[in-house]
Amino acid sequence: MVHGIPDEVMMNITLIKDLADVAKDAALQQGVILRMHETPNSSEIVTYVPVSLFPTPMPKAVFFQALALQTHYNTLVDKISQDPDFLQDALASTIAVDDFTARLFRIHQEILKEGRSQNIVLGLNRSDYMLDQREDGTSSLKQIEINTFAASLGGLSSRMPDLHRQILQMAGQLEESQFIPGNNTAAGLAGAIAKAWELYGSERAVVMFLVEDNSRNIFDQRYVECELWKRNIPTTRKRFDNVFTTGSLDQDKRLFVHDLEVGVVYFRHGYMPQHYLSEKCWDARLLIDRSLAVKCPDISTHLAGTKKVQQVLAKPGVLEKFFPDQPQVAEQIRATFAGLYTLEMGPEGDKTIARALTSPDRFVLNPQRKGGGNNIYGSEICDVLEEIKESTERMAYILMDKILPTPSKNYLLIQDSPLQITNCLSELGAFGAYVRRGKEMVINECVGHLLRTKSSEQLEGHVLVGLAVLDNPLPI
To answer: pLDDT of 395-411, one tens digit each?
Structure first.
């Protein structure tokens, strides 16, 4: 029986220092790396992604529960994206006060009015969880959110099992090293993209990664690109301004950018308001969504991943509408929901605000934003709600129960940070990939997992800015 890393290993400081040096070198060697830029004119600096020294023990049952649920979450997201009435009702209050969501929704409406050009749908998403500590000492899987747009770190997480296997072997933990699960998320994501490209039906078409100008996370994307090139599928990397300047649609709505026919657009940029620097960016987004290219995500799937939709799904009876003949699936999904509460105007929203103001440490205040660093905690919840509680601005947020996992101990290898044992909290993600053509679901798979670990003192868990590290689960 595997019980995790023995205390005598965790507390052997000489061994820990040696293992930390090996882990940093191994991370670079095995490609767990970032590319960073000091200034626009500087040379590039390559460094390792923050990683944990050891894998984190996790109950086997909840690990496999997350993986097994992912195909159901894929189906749920896809069904939501096909239900314009549900999206209209769910997002009505949010689009009234949140300009960014409103702009996205207007594109959605325009596409519906014009008619969808493409019946091939590609979804690459990631459902994120933490283990909530029950009063009886057991843990239950609770969802934080589902990411339907630019669900990242699949490429880098594919490199993590070998790193921790090497460290455990060097630490004399040979049995534990064999229990680290394999994880080739990059190949799984690329496989779904490849299927969508194949169904598009043009060998001369490229897969276009829609990216920002300088990406710190470029290697994560490159692993997926490399998997596509292994399949002889050409890729290109373009920005919104490239699409605006050189993009066009022919009479069949085929998308061309720099004279390249684009069969699949894989968005890795465009999920935050600051990604749309001008109206040209919005025009480029509309052009892409109007096109025949397969979009990942298309505009409806983008909206399906909003926080407000997540909160509406938690209402009684809503999941059953999407799984009318599978009540057990609805029950399994609902079991992962933490408490989610509306802040809409009226008695229910007023009750939510009163609850939050009374016990702010029990909750997280979520705006309609992705990308990390947007959530509001503790006394700041009171500051925000006191300011907006009488305003419709409050409808741009939802309130969520704060998940309370049991801390574990580990060493977090973060650039320029001291090497010390740390109380840690972990967040598990399950990657899903699906391809639908018309009414036929061609692919529906869980293609991998991600574990991020942070100090228990940190509120946010953003790996790329050093607030959290990449990790591996050690199922026990």
So the answer is: 888 899 999 898 999 99
Residue 452 tokens read as: 């991020």
Asked whether the predicted pLDDT for residue 137 surpasses 80, the reply is no
SS (H, E, C) the chain: CCCCCCHHHHCCHHHHHHHHHHHHHHHHHCCCEEEEECCCCCCEEEEECCEECCCEEECHHHHHHHHHHHHHHHHHHHHHHCCHHHHHHHHHHHHHHCHHHHHHHHHHHHHHHHCCCCCEEEEEEEEEEEEEECCCCCEEEEEEEEECCCCCCHHHHCCHHHHHHHHHHHCCCHHHHCCCCCCCHHHHHHHHHHHHHHHHCCCCCEEEEECCCCCCCHHHHHHHHHHHHHCCCCEEEECHHHHHHHCEECCCCCEEECCEEEEEEEECCCCCHHHCCCHHHHHHHHHHHHCCCEEECCHHHHHHCCHHHHHHHCCCCHHHHHCCCCHHHHHHHHCCECCEEECCCCHHHHHHHHHHHHCHHHEEEEECCCCCCCCEECHHHHHHHHHHCCCHHHHHEEEEECCCCCCEEEEEECCCCCCCEEEEEEEEEEEEEEEEECCEEEEEEEEEEEEEEEECCCCCCCCCCCCCEEECEEEC
Query: What was the pLDDT predicted at 366?
Result: 86
Residues 104/303, Cβ–Cβ less than 8 Å: yes
pTM of the model: 0.94
pLDDT averaged over every residue in the chain? 93
Residues 303-340 have pLDDT tens digits of 999 999 999 999 999 999 999 999 999 999 999 999 99
